[in-house]
């Protein structure tokens, strides 16, 4: 891991690089003073990854990773730990943030970038069939290396985390709550219950989660 | 996610994080559980730190597999985030949950 100043972003924007190997190396890459972390494989696309980012504050933590790494590593757990080193998260808030961001991330990976049919989750055999499809797609350079981006920004009273995928979008208006014993459909409910506000943007490729911080 | 099983018919224990990417070992565990004779199956969740909606869905699939085999699936001692997810999704009404 190294921390450097990227020439394409302002001089005070601390950029770190993750090798994509493990949660331990991600933890190191997200350590202070990093504000933005990019997986090494995506470094040559750094200008694209920071398009529209607010680089003027230190109250941000951005992570840009491949779909492959988002699927294979406990990215959200490590990311929330890194947030906890920058702002005070109560245990209640840590659980809520971790639970909601995990749902948003897996939705971005499975439905946004990998386009896995949700129907495959209806049986254990279907899940095994899904695994073969997932592995094939993850090994595809175009799909496996497609971007997932997490951006957190906060003030003394609120935290917002945005999860973006590189897919074609998703019509959330058609999502129906799960039947009580249904196999799937709980993701959106969990986003709504654990965050204070959920906003779907950019045709469904972006989900913004907002949390009030305790005074 | 780690799964701890013994061959003496004792409780099965899950630990760590249980998310979508754990479906292969979970399917294997379910197959092994219901291949062996018995009545009820207890899964100890006391060391499971985290579960997401996909993990909840897989527990429901295991419950359905139990019903097909005329068995009962009992979830024991969920705690922390897992207990909270059970409450949010009313999972306590879908399973026998032992505290």
TrEMBL record, chain A:
Keywords: ATP-binding, Kinase, Nucleotide-binding, Serine/threonine-protein kinase, Transferase. PANTHER family: ANTI-SIGMA-F FACTOR RSBW, ANTI-SIGMA-F FACTOR RSBW-RELATED. This is ATP-binding protein. The keyword Kinase applies. Pfam families: HATPase_c_2. It comes from Bradyrhizobium denitrificans. Residues 76-210 form the Histidine kinase/HSP90-like ATPase domain. GO terms for molecular function: ATP binding. It comes from the Bacteria. Signal peptide: none annotated.
From TrEMBL, chain B:
Transmembrane segments: none annotated. It comes from the Bacteria. Residues 12-99 form the STAS domain. PROSITE patterns: STAS. Pfam families: STAS. CDD domains: STAS_anti-anti-sigma_factors. Coiled coil: none annotated. InterPro entries: Anti-sigma_ant, STAS_dom, STAS_dom_sf. Belongs to the anti-sigma-factor antagonist family. NCBIfam families: ant_ant_sig (TIGR00377). This is Anti-sigma factor antagonist. It comes from Bradyrhizobium denitrificans.
